[in-house]
Amino acid sequence: MSSLHQRETSLWHPFADMSAVRDEQFCVARAEGVWVYDQQGRRYLDGTAGLWYCNAGHGRTEIVDAVARQMRELDTYFVFNDVTNPPAEQLADRLAGLAPVDDAKIFLTTGGGESVDTAAKLARLYWVHQGRPERTHILSRGNAYHGTNGMGTSIGGIEANQAGFGRLVPDTERVDRDDAESLREAIERIGADRIAAFFAEPVMGAGGLYPPKPGYLEAVAKICAEHDILFVADSVICGFGRVGGWFGVERWGLRPDMITFAKGVTSGYLPLGGVVVGGRVAEPFWRQPGHPFRHGPTYSGHPSVAAAALANLDILEREELPARADALERPLHEGLLSLADHPAVGEVRGGTGLLGAVELAPDVLAADPGAAARLQRAVRDRGVIVRPLAKAVAVSPPLTVAESEIDLLVQALREGLDEV
Ligand code: PLP
């Protein structure tokens, strides 16, 4: 256990049971490529790309240099009202050009949760400006994760993340995770003319790593279009090559009304998120006077953060990393599937980009509901980082990972499974 950092911390870790980690933490001190190093210098394969974000891998001096150059030129400035700056303009143009959305506008935030809240508020306000203020309901899927801000907490489908916070944002409702008919039924029950938007992650991440059932995303997009309900893709995990394509929706031929993004847009080097807003939703705000969107974080359009994103996009493009994720999808999935008949495994999920999960068998989880966290630690002791979810561990390596490193990851999982 020498990799653990023994010291009473003052740092409150998100989502952690601090009573368990306050004296013993895993301290990551350095990173390079697909590897991270603890304070003793021991290395670990970053099988999760941080929190699903480090698509270009660690140690990209090109991003560091671009940020340093930008900081020397214009370290920080805001973009409220009529103020702008060159990197924010360039980034918005570039993202709008890549997005599978008609006449795209780009609203920048500092992360995924803020982007979800931005899109949800925008959806409701759009309908107000259409003279339809009763269109307030926001639908989403069971098991969805849309961040921990107000709207995102309310439309999330992981109940534990809502418990104890009192009354959440009203007029939010979950539908079945996989069944498009459940969305249709909810629309019939609530009434399409009272619904603003439907939010969906293309591949559900934190709620358990569920790729969409064949035809599901196409079906819900069609149902939304039939009922004039805004379709919002939450591509915070799926964007920037993670499932191939730039915005995590291209492989299903989707053209959402809005797309939320974050994480891979900077490969996590600096905090950035945003919303791609289709021309239709933007129209009342951009063309009709007197409709400002009274919403926005201080650091929207931060020039140094935008510089990090531009340098990261250069790398993703030059090294064709979205296509690489496509090419490695099969080796990763086959590697994980080789664990499917292990007695401790209940189900293997994935096969959609560089995302996968190994869910533990029901008897293992019945004997120890914390088995996924135990598996994660057993795998980490073998030099590989995976992410514990409620019943599974998830993997999402940097898009630069080599096939031999995928083999290492699978081998460490196999040995970890033997241990749990
Ligand atoms: N939406 C999805 C699909 C996510 O996976 C996440 C984070 O994992 C978020 C939103 C929230 O993003 P952030 O943690 O940057 O606020």
From TrEMBL:
<keyword id="KW-0808">Transferase</keyword>
<keyword id="KW-0663">Pyridoxal phosphate</keyword>
<dbReference type="InterPro" id="IPR015424">
    <property type="entry name" value="PyrdxlP-dep_Trfase"/>
</dbReference>
<dbReference type="GO" id="GO:0008483">
    <property type="term" value="F:transaminase activity"/>
</dbReference>
<dbReference type="InterPro" id="IPR015422">
    <property type="entry name" value="PyrdxlP-dep_Trfase_small"/>
</dbReference>
<protein>
    <submittedName>
        <fullName>Aspartate aminotransferase family protein</fullName>
    </submittedName>
</protein>
<dbReference type="InterPro" id="IPR005814">
    <property type="entry name" value="Aminotrans_3"/>
</dbReference>
<keyword id="KW-0032">Aminotransferase</keyword>
<comment type="similarity">
    <text>Belongs to the class-III pyridoxal-phosphate-dependent aminotransferase family.</text>
</comment>
<dbReference type="Pfam" id="PF00202">
    <property type="entry name" value="Aminotran_3"/>
</dbReference>
<dbReference type="InterPro" id="IPR015421">
    <property type="entry name" value="PyrdxlP-dep_Trfase_major"/>
</dbReference>
